[in-house]
Amino acid sequence: MATILVLYHSSHGSVEAMANEIAETLNAQGATVRLRTFVQRQPHDIVVTKQDLIECDGLAFGTPTRFGMMAAQAKTFWETTSDVWLKGQLIDKPACVFSSSSSMHGGNEATLLNLSLPLLHHGMVLMGVPYDVPELLSTESGGTPYGATHVAGLDNSAQLTETEVRICRAVATRLYTVAKKLL
Ligand SMILES: Cc1cc2nc3c(=O)[nH]c(=O)nc-3n(C[C@H](O)[C@H](O)[C@H](O)COP(=O)(O)O)c2cc1C
């Protein structure tokens, strides 16, 4: 059994909905899941510690798209992890990234690449979404080869589509499969 850290920030609930889909898929497959946020926004939030990173066997990391980049709350946390980086404690752990944006072409792919950068610096094994996930070709909203995305609309009212949910489930399944192989 592998421990997967699902680590996210969400202000309006879209990234949280994606994190919950990923966590539920992992739970259903028998993973030990740690669902963590960067800051305490809601009573049920559990704020991440560096120990969560060190102890996980795989990471799913998501934030909203903020001007084509990760949310500041996440960047602030990653900037506290240089001791973990110096010790190489995340090297060879598999990881994937996910994001939500207001608009379809508003920079969510750029954000996924931005989310990937600290993970690559830490030596993690970055995983995208392969094209054997058929929804990648049929989606009319979120879903990219760099990771799962959701298009929330200007008022954040759009729920995850069935296609977006399936892509979240596919990345969670792939992450857990690879994490177990790398144990
Ligand atoms: C400061 C700020 C910057 C944003 N930048 C973008 C952007 O570049 N492109 C975009 O499509 N949406 C942008 N948004 C909208 C969020 O990405 C969008 O509302 C997202 O779905 C929120 O996710 P959440 O519900 O998990 O908070 C921005 C929102 C804020 C507050």
From TrEMBL:
Domain Flavodoxin-like positions: 4-176
Domain of life: Bacteria
Enzyme class name: oxidoreductase
InterPro entries assigned: Flavodoxin/NO_synth, Flavoprotein-like_sf, Flavoprotein_WrbA-like, FMN_Rdtase-like_dom
Pfam families linked: FMN_red
GO function terms (MF aspect): NAD(P)H dehydrogenase (quinone) activity
Enzyme Commission number(s) of this protein: 1.6.5.2
Keyword check for Oxidoreductase: yes
Membrane-spanning segments: none
Swiss-Prot/TrEMBL keywords: Flavoprotein, FMN, Oxidoreductase
PANTHER family linked to this entry: FLAVODOXIN-RELATED PROTEIN WRBA-RELATED, FLAVOPROTEIN-LIKE PROTEIN YCP4-RELATED
Recorded family membership: Belongs to the WrbA family.
Descriptive protein name: NAD(P)H:quinone oxidoreductase
